[in-house]
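Data deposition worksheet. Section B asks for the primary sequence of the deposited chain exactly as it was used as input, without tags or linkers unless they were present during the calculation. Section C holds the resulting structure in token form. Section D is free text for depositor observations; keep each observation to a single sentence. Incomplete worksheets are returned to the depositor.
Section A, Depositor: J.P.
Section B:
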Amino acid sequence: MTTPIKNLTHTPSQSVVNVFASEAQAVQEAILSTLHDGRHFKVEAGAGAGKTSSLIEAVQGIIAHRHRYLPRRDQRVACITYTNVARDEIISRTDSSPYVYADTIHGFLWRLLSPFPRHLLRHLVELDAVKPKLEGRTSLDGYTVGYTTGFAKIDHETLHVQLAHNDLPALACKLFTLPKFRAIVADQFPVVFVDEYQDTPAGLAEALLGTPDEETRFRGPLCGFFGDHWQQIYDNVCGTITDPRLKPIIRRRNRRSERAVVDFLNSMRPELKQTANPRADQGSVTIYHTNDWAGTRLTHHQKGQIGWDAAHAARSWVLQDARTHHWRAEESVGIAAAQTVAPNTKILMLTHETIAGELGYQRLHKAFRRNESYVKKEDHIMAFFLDVLEPALLHHRNKRYGAMFDILGHRSLLTSPADKRTWAAVLHEIDETRETGTVGDVLDLCLKQRLFDGLSKIRERQQKSETPTDDGAQAAGDDKAKARAKEYQALRAVPYAQLLALHDHLGGGTPFATQHGVKGQEFDRVLTVISKGHTRFQIPEMLASYSRRHELTGKDQEAFVRARNLFYVACSRAKQHLALLFTARLDPAALDTLCAWVGSSRIHSLQFDGDSVMGGAPEASSAV
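Section C:
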């Protein structure tokens, strides 16, 4: 049980501190003072303001006065994060303190839930997503329960339930309604901090807070939420918290970006004005659009988008123009040269489709129904090629044979010159085929050889694609099986060189990334390309309706917020220079919004001769 912390005094630093340290200290003191009063709080801070730093500084303050916040030696402050990287950062910056428990949301929830299997099973049968798997049962009494990062499963033969990611938040929300459960959590973790709260599963933050009228003797932990609801870009997550019990604490200093970028973000978000570092340089924000392209624009999900050749030419020209006239970067030529400065320059695309087009693996992209199949290597074939074969071949070329055998899972020694010749011949043939053959050509060589294995799932996939089931009892799954077989055949026909291009991209060998994929990161120079292709993020439409944003309701408001948040995330990655290229048509209202934010002199209309870019005219002198 937690009680308000009294008689806590804060002694400000006697040294002269800069403006960043002053704000950081003020936020830390506000957090500690709020905990002292026994209240929950929310630290709301825009991009680059140091939300995670505030969390860590607050934890350090708690450790410094541990006996006030954690009365017993076995108690800890819990820090819930969204990623393993953030978790490790907290552990590192708090010197692996035994009084700090840092973990991902799911790791933290499983720690809390796993000691209560009977309660989990009792509430599990109430979840709509689980009911089809119960096969008519109303109880799971007598079953065991575990947790995996894979798929949820109920095995009625072994009486075992395997929970998955989505199950834990739903079950936690139910258990947090139980006063005694909340008291047990508070007994272990009197204080719980949630980093990037806007990305927590929907309902979880509210469940942590409990009901406003809960009994004092069963009071749960004191909660602190750190985040920014403008950076919510995923579905089915918290977004924002408006509970009146939360004391709002605002952090306004932008520690990341230079003045022009901060001014741009403030124009976009006047509700949360940020201040730049007084010593920051000016930086730049430059906007380019393609309204004057005279060709036939794309249709369907890419409606309003200029043609692929014109889009490629526009990206290349804009990157060079930005580097030469605005970024003052080292001399380079076009997209190819940008790849040599990938750590400092990032080109952000709206979809994986546009990146595939830019890097030349369009057929590979089109072979899959879901991006995750190849980007996250959920497909077994892609996982084998990218995580096994390619690293093994690289080790072979560098004569690191031990490492090669480790990856291939081959543990026996080479006992004769004949063994070496056999291995060399197989790997040489695979290596040569990679350069000119298809994915199917390389796959067949791998399946034919008998030197290494790890291909059982791929063999099964090939067999199923060649002999689809005719079992009438499985008719409901026929369409899925046919789709899988079609996907397999399409993948086999892809030139293996396109897989190599993807491998280079996923390994960080290119400057390209999706706008979703760089959340939480920062780069010196950013080119954000606003295209079509993602039906849920219509940024040109969002800009056109910006002046009447407060009038939007229902689905119009939801669509506006989704697009606004992604646009804000993409633009706020820039530390020094930001360039925006719109390859989708901009309505006059959208151009008016951008002109109000940066001025017409910073907006350039690209001039085309066919699909070639001939230059850029300032918006003030070009027709919209």
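Section D:
The chain has a mean pLDDT of 89.
The longest helix spans residues 417-436.
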